[in-house]
Amino acid sequence: MANPILHFHGAAGSVTGSCFLLETAGGRILVDCGMFQGSKSEKELNYKPLPFNPEKVDAVLLTHAHIDHSGLLPKLAKAGYGGPIFATAATIDLCTIMLQDSGHIQESEVRQLNRRNRRRARETVEPIYTADDARSMLPQFIAVEYGEWRETVGGVRFRYWNAGHLMGSASIEVETPGADGATRILFSGDVGASNKLFENLPRAPSGVDYLICESTYGDREREEYALKDRRDRLREVVASSNSPGGVLLIPSFAVERSQEVLTDLVALMDEGQVPRCPIMIDSPLASRATEAFKKHAADLDHGKAFLRALNAPNVRFTETAEQSKALDLVRGFHIIIAASGMCEAGRIRHRLKNWLWRPECTVLFVGFQAAGTLGRILQEGATDIRIQGEEIHVCARMATLDAYSGHADASELDAWVAEREPIRNAVFLVHGEESAREAMSARLSKQVSAKVVCPSLDDAYDLLPAGARLIEDTTPARIKPVVPGKADWNNDYQRFVLDLSGRLKSVADERGRAVVLRRLRRALDPEDVSAVEGRRDFDANHGS
Hints:
Layout: E1 5-8, E2 20-24, E3 27-31, H1 40-43, E4 59-61, H2 67-70, H3 73-78, E5 85-88, H4 89-119, H5 131-137, E6 141-144, E7 150-151, E8 157-162, E9 170-176, E10 183-187, E11 210-214, H6 227-241, E12 247-251, H7 257-270, E13 279-282, H8 284-295, H9 303-310, E14 315-317, H10 321-325, E15 334-338, H11 348-355, E16 361-365, H12 374-379, E17 384-387, E18 390-393, E19 397-400, H13 410-418, E20 426-430, H14 434-447, E21 451-453, E22 460-464, E23 467-470, H15 489-506, H16 510-524, H17 526-541
Parallel strand pairs: 3-4, 4-5, 5-6, 10-11, 11-20, 12-15, 12-16, 13-14, 13-15, 16-19, 20-21
Antiparallel strand pairs: 1-2, 1-22, 2-3, 7-8, 8-9, 9-10, 17-18, 22-23
Helix pairs in contact: 4-5, 4-8, 7-9, 13-14, 16-17
């Protein structure tokens, strides 16, 4: 194989599941191995076999610790990968915590699912991996420094650059040797936003042949928030939420986002901008991640303010399930920060179940909500939702403060790409929903001379000296129809169930409800309904 081949096995049309396989003449290198999140159809990919042979992968380069980039590494190792996983020291510290937590969550969710499956006479399932699986692969991590050239299989060199997205996050520059000279490829990872509390501005090299760039916020601009402006906006949300017996619920990613929001809240209280009230961090993962942040606090911007916030007398971390459940008994206005950030798992779902039906509750979103997630559904104004099979009428107020996002917005992404010029051959847009990629592609096509490509899931491209060429593949798509980054039939079904319940409640009498159900049966099976109605008419005419 004369030229490298790049496979897009995740984050192609969606914002999760980052996974790129680079084949070179000397070996196979995986950049990230992330978990899919979002709709149930997309999450089912986590349970399917990996679309490549793990035993034939020679090295893994990890951009950062977020689960949508690292979350399937234990599955990769469990399936036979025994090679090195290169990452920064801070990323390794976070992965040590996050991957074991991910294994615990999967074990817990599968236990609950299997209880339901047994009651429904359905087959039981196995967790994708366990906490023990995660622990067993941790020795495969190898720490790298920013700016340090390293060499791996087949003479491939790579170098990490600070991406400014998360503690330890990186963009990765890769050089693959070839007869016509080296091919330079840059994987952006997740590019950090300006005015991040703990991170520096992102850095990366220029003059690459191929750029693989994230596009999470490729179609939207955030308001420009300096630190003071962001805290002023947070102060407004807290003030408008502060009601007797009320709560401000903040679904937050446990790693860095929770620590940022906590630091700002305590700073506002110390300055007298908002009344001091209890702040509960309802996430064991956030508690453990906080220890990693304390370890690296000297390397963080505003690290001292973060340490002060941790020691504030009104801040509490819940560890046990009993401590978490006790939060339902708290009286007076309080603030709860709980994972997960997209409301898909974790303790935030219990908090939402307990509070969404109450008008004295405010839910503040501080991060991106992927299509099909409960967070996106609430953010878009759903009036009725289902959590763990229970129907809840939403009376809580929704608020969004995207100043905390770890991702660069549209103009920041454009500027970051411009700084990578000249880009000689192609820009691949990944890690973005279709609307984001299309908008960013339209802008970049006018900005850069390189071709702009939006790959689909499992596409493979031959990275030729003259440009990228799509390799035709007849392998059936892993998702049918191809629906990454979109709500799926499961979301439609939940919406239908809620709409049907509302329709039946709105009908005045039992006869009217019977008419609604008969019409539904007719739509589902016209022949069966005709037979039922025929029997009913016969019974009525013959006095049965």
